[in-house]
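Structure ticket #2291
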Amino acid sequence: MSGLTASLLAVGLVGAVTVETPRTGHVVVASAPRDTTSAFGSAETGDTETTPATDLTTTTTAAASSPTTARPQTATTTAPAAVTTHQPASLQSGIYVVDADGGTPRRIVAGTGIHRLSFSPDGKRVTYMVKNQVWSVPATGGAAAPLTPESAFMVEATWSSSGRFLAYGSSDDAAKPAHLMLLEVATGETRDLGELNWSEGSVAWQKHADVLVFSNFKTLVVHNALTRESFPVFPEPAAFAPFAWSDDGDELAYRSQNDLAVFTFTDTNHYTTDRPKRIVATSSGPKDPVWIGDQIYFVNPWKLDVAAAPGGNQRNVVSGYTGSLRVAAKNSTTLFLSIGADAGNVANRRIERVALDGSDRRVIVNPIARHQIQDYAVSPQGDTVAFWAVGE
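Resolution: structure written out below.
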């Protein structure tokens, strides 16, 4: 059995219970039980030993309210749970999970150099990249294991809606373009789909089918993972990521120059069209587009806008240095945002949730002092947020 296959078995994606020791450079350490303690907050259980207070707090009050103060962290003397640590480690850096309604975050992975967080489609696992390798860890905590081999360069890591496939960009030579790799998780089979013109959001899966789109420098490519067919798509020479599919998979949103455009397929068996593109929103570079019903929400640098997919009616939803947008795949009634104090102040970005019309805006995680929230993801059900924080 190969090391990668054993790792897939270990994380429960194939159904076996074999556990493989993490590779060199990653160690398993003991931490307090995940249901009683947090690196950011505390839960008192019997006799405890108090450690210094943390520098990151949470709140479920309105966004304009002051953040709450975290209580001192406590540690119990009961049997610890395993937490995977990626070196170099720091006192509080790592991946944390928190209820989408707020609460005390719990660290499930320790270490730095982590990015590209996402949830598996069933919401049971958090996937992330570290040291040019994709890893997976139970969302409730436990031992993490790699899903892919190590490479010289790696970008993206996105699940198909069925959870059967994982797409990621990889290269054995950091000086050469990455190729889009497609992993069939149950079998471990990996396919090379060709060169990937990588940028933020350059790989997008349809919401209800194992079909993805990516750019290969020459054109856009639609690939059906089940039939293994690829179709070149030519909406225009200046078609760039990020991409977003409509709910029915008949339309594709993308960046046209610096505007948000939509391309409609008249034949979804071969992904061809006889219709021209249409501009649905003017922008200085749209980011993180999300199609909800007949509207597309997107970050219009440092503010959240929404546009009607047929075109026109562009309006602002949230102002104030919006860094990124996330939406729960199976419960798209709430928007999740990273909000900064100003355009360049990454250290003070917080995670908020807001209704689709911009109302009921609330803070979920609010970093202070020596912490930075670098990346985050929302579970498909919309009940959990995972984030990577860097701090002393």
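Closing remark: Residues 3-10 form the longest helix (8 residues).
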